[in-house]
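ok trying this again, last paste got cut off
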Amino acid sequence: MSIRQATEQDVPRILEIYAPYVENTAISFEYAVPSLEVFTQRFLEITTRFPWLVWEEGGAVLGYAYGSLPFERAAYQWCAEASIYLCPEARGRGIGKKLYRELEQLLQQQGYKKVYAIITTANEDSIAFHRAAGYRYTATMPNCGFKFGTWYGTVWMEKELNTWDVPPHVPVSFHQV
């Protein structure tokens, strides 16, 4: 059992874990599973700046967590978004908690002040998970996503990673920590 930085070779397995969330749930608001090429490009773009971690057990990736930008404008550059997906056999074993703890530590070292989780209202387990991890509600956006013939909202939760008033520097790339 280990947490490690994901590599491009992990992307097919990561996409395999993600696909059922797209195909069978409103946890992801994507309608179609991205192609391997599109998902690989997404992975490469994100990992130029953010950590993308995997949980590996017996040579198999069972889950992943990564950081990304929640907003584009320069004044938001001290904010990150965290995402996590686990395969069914990894749920309820504390893997998500360990992945998130490691991800948050890396984001803090990079210089991010806040980390956000943007969760669909269809994912009550994730809302409870984030609450237990120290996240607090910041906003609810009702009926903003339509999937499988139903309207779903999103819950925005946040956690403070750094408490300074004036940032000592702009966040650095994950590769610099």
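PB: full thing came through this time. The chain is about 30% helix and 30% strand.
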